[in-house]
Amino acid sequence: MDLATDVAFDVFARTCPSRDTLKHVTDRWGSLTLGALHDGTFRFNELRRRVDGVSEKMLSQTLHALERDGLVHREAQPTNPPRVDYELTPLGREVAERLLGLIELLESRMPAVLAAQERYDAAHADA
User: Fold this and answer.
1) Triad 98, 24, 10: Cα angle to 5°
2) Dist. CA 26–CA 110, nearest whole Å
3) If phi over 0 gives left and psi between -120 and 50 gives alpha, with beta otherwise, what is residue 9?
4) Neighbour count for residue 92 (Cβ, 10 Å)
5) What residues are paired with 72 via a beta bridge?
6) In the chain, which residue ranges form alpha helices assigned H by DSSP?
7) Would you call 85 helix, strand, or coil by DSSP?
């Protein structure tokens, strides 16, 4: 059976494998990594500087998960010292473009979000 064509995927079903991919794409480091790679090809340390705050371990884990999901391509150059480049696959580019739309929406609506947070905090200050 070919899973890609014979199964209807449903992210709301507990056992659906799409849940893991959704987690990789939407967790903090996954979405930021995909967004950063939308700008082009990066070496590991360049990407780490671009995604401010990510640890080396978390970036490595994130890149492995995204590569396994087919969203990121890793290419090791046969140079001395070794050079490894990361870039989006066509699927990764499609996902990143949708994520960037959400990121742009959130950034543009942050005044409303901050105002809502202030109202909430004021209303729940005694709790």
Assistant:
1) 75
2) 19
3) beta
4) 23
5) 88
6) 3-6, 18-26, 28-37, 44-50, 56-68, 90-108, 110-123
7) strand
pTM tops 0.70, yes or no:
yes
The radius of gyration computed from the CA coordinates of the chain, to the nearest angstrom, equals 18
> Could you tell me the CA-to-CA distances from 88 to 30, 57, 115 in Å, in that order?
12, 20, 36
pLDDT class of 62 with cuts at 50, 70, 90:
very high
Q: How would residue 22 be classed by pLDDT, with cut points 50, 70 and 90? A: very high
Give the span between the Cα atoms of 20 and 16, in whole angstroms.
Answer: 8
Q: Taking each helix axis as running N to C, give the angle between helix 18-26 and helix 56-68, from 0 to 180 degrees, rounded to the nearest 10.
A: 140
